[in-house]
Design goal:
One of its GO terms (molecular function) is alcohol dehydrogenase (NAD+) activity. Its cofactor is Fe cation. It catalyses: a secondary alcohol + NAD(+) = a ketone + NADH + H(+); a primary alcohol + NAD(+) = an aldehyde + NADH + H(+). Keywords: NAD, Oxidoreductase. By secondary structure, the protein is an alpha/beta fold. The protein folds into 2 domains: about 15-185, 3-Layer(aba) Sandwich (Rossmann fold); about 190-385, Dehydroquinate synthase-like - alpha domain (Dehydroquinate synthase-like, alpha domain), CATH 1.20.1090. About 50% of the residues lie in helices and about 10% in strands. It is built from 14 helices and 9 strands. Strands 1-9-6-4-2-3 form a 6-stranded parallel sheet, sandwiched between helices. It is globular, with a radius of gyration of 20 Å. The model has no long low-confidence stretch (mean pLDDT about 95). The protein binds nicotinamide-adenine-dinucleotide and fe (ii) ion. Nicotinamide-adenine-dinucleotide (NAD) binds near residues 47, 105, 107, 147 and 187. The site of nicotinamide-adenine-dinucleotide (NAD) has 29 residues, from helix 2, helix 5, strand 7, helix 6 and helix 10.
Amino acid sequence: MTDPTPGFSFDTPGSTLVEWAGAARMGELLGGWFAARNVLIVTDKFLNDAGVLDAAKASLAGHGFTVSVFDDVVADPPEAVLTACVAQGRAAGAQIVMGLGGGSSMDIAKLVAVMLVSEQPLAQLYGIGKVTGQRLPLVQVPTTAGTGSEVTNITILTTGETTKMGIVAHQLYADRVLLDAELTVGLPPMQTAATGIDAMVHAIEAYTSRHKKNLLSDIFAREALRLLARHLVPACQNGQDRAAREGMLIGANFAGQAFSNSPVGAVHALAYPLGGHFHLPHGLTNALMLGPVLRHNMSVAAPLYAQLADVVLGPSDEGVQARSAAFVGFMEDLMDRSGAPRRLRDVGVGADSLPMLARDAMLQTRLLQNNPVEVDEAAALSLYRQAF
Ligand SMILES: NC(=O)c1ccc[n+]([C@@H]2O[C@H](COP(=O)([O-])OP(=O)(O)OC[C@H]3O[C@@H](n4cnc5c(N)ncnc54)[C@H](O)[C@@H]3O)[C@@H](O)[C@H]2O)c1
Ligand SMILES: [Fe+2]
């Protein structure tokens, strides 16, 4: 007899539409989904100026929507961005909130949808399950294939100078997700690589997570990794490659569904201090820490890495240790081929800052507890040294 399957729960947005150029039908789509006709689009200035929103805006106007665009989102958004966005949404009488952009824009959109109808002050929302009350209708439209924020129940805000804090709540799951890969064709190769590796890390860490890993998160993680491994380099080499862009966007979405239910571990825990202190993009910080953390975790996670080797390399008769090593080697080779910077010294991180980073990483207890192998401060320092 085999062991019974432990019980689990799996949550995700109720509806996802995958449609190339779907944003050009935004008015028709939203008109069918909701009765309200006043939309707040949450995005950043670069995307707005580059015309990435134009098709959606034109379609919404053509279908009788009043549209207000908040384009002051910045990477790793601070609390002030959220407050300004809520104020604009309130003044505009927003009835629907749409995140249209990368993880930063979508993260802000989720929380704005809550705060436009909630009396709870922001300070009370940090942590897990602290949001009471409801939110406005929420639509998420990613323009990077990375964070999977469109399907997660997490918003990450920068609080103070360097610290990032998370708000995790069921209300942050969107009502509707549109995956229009045409919106991602302008993402430059380096950002395609970094955000794509972030998505791969989501899949890997969800697959090896210590507490909530389950049958469904495993399915999403494996299929995410298969798609992302196949399409990352083609998407970096030719941004116009439609199949590669679609594969990446769906892969990142699946990885998001995996880690929203089976949370990430030490790669993210060690990546966050790098983002906070050196203002490096989230995906890049993950790419820098992935190799050392994979090797650190092999003592316990080798059987799972061996299974992931089958996903990205195909089946083999090799033993578990050899397969696990093959998986780690595959990921390191893929990162080399993607063109992403690979060492901390290459991105302006000084050797003298490594002890401070290791100390800071210990604050990420929410993530470290999910890692298959314990990471204490000494181990963190060793991992930063290996990444240096
Ligand atoms: N909620 C979650 O589950 C979750 C998970 C991981 C990370 N995050 C957060 O997400 C953020 C990172 O998101 P991100 O990596 O998507 O980047 P981002 O949203 O911070 O955007 C980075 C840059 O890419 C540009 N960009 C985005 N789409 C583009 C396109 N199609 N063409 C050209 N340029 C484009 C943006 O203008 C911006 O300058 C961080 O704030 C991080 O904390 C959230
Ligand atoms: Fe991430």
